[in-house]
Each structure stands twice: as structure tokens, then as C-alpha cells.
Design goal:
Blueprint lengths: L4 E5 L1 H19 L6 H18 L5 E2 L7 H7 L5 E4 L5 E8 L4 E9 L1 H7 L6
Parallel strand pairs: 1-5
Antiparallel strand pairs: 2-3, 3-4, 4-5
């Protein structure tokens, strides 16, 4: 049985998406055809479609790596990472019931912010 899959951008992810959308809109008005922001926005839209087709598309992250803020704020019991263009990441959690599957995008962040969130350091 295939359940419908919805993808919802929450809080920080939605704010970043809206910021990018506005910036790309301005760039298009200025006549730009291909900026890093345009590539990133296309990448996000593409990955959202991939997740709609297969919620398990991304890399499943170990439970011990799930930031406490995601557990406390969103009751995230799982965390998935989809790699975007220019080393950006989209982090999402999957929730479902008997009727549908909902993927909540918790964050869209660049490599530096991703490393900081997960405590990775340069060697």
C-alpha cells in the first residue's frame, strides 16, 4: 500500500527557503540567469520531489547524532540528510500514520553551519 507523502518546511528551513526565493526573484529581475542561489533553490526543489517519491531518499543519520533541539522542539525520532549543491544540506524527519507520511524539513544549511550543528571540526 502506497501512502501519500507530504513535505513541509518548518521554521528555519522555511525561512531559508523564503529568503532564497526572494533573492532569486530579485536576481531574475536584474537579468541574472544562473547564480549560486538559483542553483541552490533548484537543488532544494529537486530534493523535495525526490523525498516525495521516496521519503527514505536521504542518508539516515545515527540517532545519537540527532541534535537535542530537534528532539525537544519537533519530537524527531529520526533524522535524514539530503545533500544539496555547493555542500549545503537539507535535514528532515519522517513521521507517518495509517493514512499518510509527512516529511518535515527542519533545516537547510550550508556546510559551515552543518559542521557546527553536529560538532564536526576541521582536522
Amino acid at each position: 500500500m502506497n501512502k501519500p507523502v507530504r513535505v513541509i518546511l518548518l521554521d528555519e528551513a522555511n525561512a531559508e527557503y523564503q529568503r532564497l526565493n526572494e533573492l532569486v526573484g530579485q536576481q531574475i529581475q536584474e537579468g541574472q540567469e544562473n547564480s549560486e542561489e538559483m542553483q541552490l533553490l533548484r537543488s532544494i526543489k529537486q530534493k523535495v520531489e525526490f523525498v516525495k517519491a521516496n521519503p527514505f531518499y536521504g542518508d539516515n543519520m545515527a540517532k545519537v547524532l540527532i541534535p537535542q533541539e530537534y528532539i525537544a522542539k519537533y519530537q524527531a525520532k529520526n533524522l535524514w540528510r539530503a545533500e544539496l549543491t555547493n555542500y549545503w544540506r537539507m535535514l528532515y524527519t519522517i513521521k507517518g500514520d495509517q493514512v499518510e507520511v509527512i516529511c518535515f524539513v527542519l533545516n537547510i544549511l550550508d556546510h559551515k553551519k552543518y559542521d557546527k550543528k553536529f560538532g564536526y571540526r576541521k582536522r
